[in-house]
Amino acid sequence: MEGRYEAVNHVLEEMRRDNPGLDAVAVVSSDGMPVVTLMSAADELKVSAMAATLQGVAEQVIKELRGGELRHVIVTSEEGTLVIKSVSKDFVLVMLVRVEAKIGFSLWQAEQASLKIAKILSP
Fold first, then answer.
1. Residue 15 to residues 43, 76, 78, 96, Cα–Cα distance (Å)
2. For the chain, which ranges sit under pLDDT 70?
3. What is the CATH number of the domain that holds 37?
4. pLDDT at residue 123 in the model
5. What pLDDT does 65 receive?
6. Which of 21, 27, 76, 110 is the most exposed place for a label (fewest CB within 10 A)?
7. Which domain holds residue 39?
8. Strand-pair partners of 15
């Protein structure tokens, strides 16, 4: 199993290398536990739990509104954009992107990374 975590870590490191505006990135379990994180100066347990909760709430809202399948959650702030993307039913990708970064590229990157990570973490 350790090989899987190293492979996910490699995907996250590639994301950071290719996107200089990416401040933080993590894969967390749907129940809010950190799996692999690249965050500085953040409580990864707290961030993981909150991100998984936000994803779950957004899924319920979309379901209630009959809005189809949730693709991602985007939260913007003065300093950047939080992107939460479902990897599978068990895992979520969390990204914090600085405001000057290209959001279109970041969303594309999230999509590509989530496909890779889903393959790595599939049973």
1. 21, 20, 23, 12
2. 1-2
3. 3.30.450.30
4. 80
5. 95
6. 76
7. 2-121
8. none
For residue 5, what are the contacts with CB-CB under 8 A and spacing of at least 6?
35, 36
- Gap between the Cα atoms of 98 and 65, Å rounded: 31
User: Which whole-number Å values give the CA distances from 89 to 29, 39, 76, 93, 113, in the listed order?
Assistant: 9, 23, 25, 12, 16
- Our count of domains for the chain comes to 1
pLDDT at 42: 84
Phi, psi of 118 (to 5 degrees): -60, -40
Structural tokens at position 82: 């939080």
Sheet containing strand 72-76, strands side by side: 34-38, 22-29, 91-98, 80-86, 72-76
Place of tokens 């749907």: 30
